Structures are given as structure tokens and as C-alpha cells.
Amino acid sequence: MNVILIAGFWLGGDSWGEVVPTLEQAGLTVHTPTLEGLASVDDDRSGVTLASQTAEVVALVDAVDAEEKVVLVGHSGGGAIIHGVVDARPDRIERAVYVDSGPTPEGIAINPQLEVTGADAPLPPWEDFDETDLRDLTDDQLAWFREIAVPEPARVARDAQHVTNPARYEVPITLISSTFSRAEIEEAIAAGIPYFAEVPLIARSSIVELPTGHWPQFTKPRELAQAIVDAIRA
Predict the structure, then answer these.
(1) What CA dihedral angle connects 234, 100, 50 and 18, to 10 degrees?
(2) How far apart, in whole angstroms, are the C-alpha atoms of residue 101 and residue 103?
(3) pTM
């Protein structure tokens, strides 16, 4: 089974480094692409959009063995990208796994409030984040994260999601939530919070709690990997 891991904002494919070994030990073929604009701080991000990054992942899905379906895993802002891929290739996707993220609905931008400089949305100061987001991150990890962070293409944060294919609702999803409890997510769905509007429309969905901060690939990588494996086996 091919598994494609899409990192959240400011991160490249190597951010999954501590997650990959457990997935490979489970017999999975793992792909960790670094999307356009995120390879270096010196990249030109002016032409990078949410649609163009989604198209990159669609092309990767198309490139793997056509006889085998693919599992998509998206962390944070990567959740919008994998949902766009599900919309484009629902027949190729076995399951979509959203890590502290969700299937971003039509018309919703990932984070239009992020401050931008030209075509770049740099990693904000830590004090701008909620305390829950930073839970379990050590001072050394925070310093390392700051060192490896690459500005997010501003349009990836600000562009509205576009999904139109109702077949996306037939692809099973798993929400691995590290900063919200199952009860909080269920309450948000029941309250009609727009960010979660797609979830009740999806035929098969499940919620897995993994209490930690917003970056479980750093704070609980083995536990996150096992949760992904369990979701695939489900």
C-alpha cells in the first residue's frame, strides 16, 4: 500500500522523519514529498497556490501503481491539500487521514489571517500560538523547528478551497486529533461550524484522539505512526 504524507505549513517532507520507520515496518510504501515553495527559504513562492500544490499531489497519485489504491495523510494545512486530491481522484484513494486537521470545505481558506510579506507567510512568533498547539514541544524542538521552517506560500494559506465531486464523500476518512477531544469535534460538527461541514457528509468517518500538541510528528511520532497504521487496517 502506498501512503503519501503531506506536511503542514512551513515544513517539508523530511518533517515526517520519525514517523516513516514505523510505517515502513508495517509494510507500507511511504512517500514524503516536499511541495513547491517549501524546499528552501530562497524559493520563489509567487506562483505557488493551493491549487498548484494540490495538483502536485494528484500527479504523485497518478504516478504510483494504478492497480493499487493510495492512502493520503495530511497534517494541519496539508489536510486541505489531501481533500482536494480526494475530490480529484476519489477512485484512487483508499482512505484519507487528517492529522489535527480536516477535510476543508468548498470556499474555505486554510488560514487567511496569517501575516504575509509579499508571497511569503513566515512562521509566526511562538507567542502567537495557542498554548495547546505547543504542548509537549521541548525548547530544543522549538528552536529546531524555527531553524528548519520555510515560509509558507501566501496563496496556499489564503486561497479558497474548491471541491466539486460528490464522489469524495465515499472515501473513508480518519481524523487523528491531537489538540481537540472527540467530544469537542462532535460538538463542533453538531453546531454546524463551517470548518467541519464536510465530515457528516462523508459515508465513513472516525475520530482518533492522540493528546499532545499540534505537531504530533515531533512530539509523539511513534504513536502517530501507529494511529495511521491502525486507520489503514481499519
Answers:
(1) -80
(2) 7
(3) 0.97
C-alpha cell read off for 83: 481533500
- Give the confidence band of 9 by pLDDT, cuts at 50, 70, 90: very high
Distance CA 121, CA 215 (A): 18
Query: d(Cα 98, Cα 83) in Å, to the nearest integer?
Result: 9
* CB-based burial label for 209 (10 Å; 0-12, 13-18, 19+): middle
**Beta-carbon neighbour count of residue 107 at 10 Å?**
11
Residue the block writes with cell 464523500: 169
Q: Write out the H or E segment, with its range, that includes residue 142.
A: helix 139-148
How many C-beta atoms lie closer than 10 Å to residue 145's C-beta? 18
* Domain ranges (residues) in the chain: 2-233
Residue with cell 516513516: 20
pLDDT per position as a tens digit, 22-63: 999 999 999 999 999 999 999 999 999 999 999 999 999 999
Nearest to 83 by CA among 168, 174, 186, 176: 168
Q: Which three cell numbers stand for residue 142?
A: 522549538
Give phi and psi for 174, each to the nearest 5: -130, 130
Q: Which of 156, 179, 171 is nearest to 206 (CA)?
A: 171
Q: Which three cell numbers stand for residue 4?
A: 503519501
Q: Reply yes or no on domain 2-233 having CATH 3.40.50.10420.
A: no
Of 106, 225, 233, whose CA–CA distance to 172 is shortest? Answer: 233
pLDDT tens-place string over residues 115-162: 999 999 999 999 999 999 999 999 999 999 999 999 999 999 999 999
**Separation CA 189–CA 103 (nearest Å):** 12
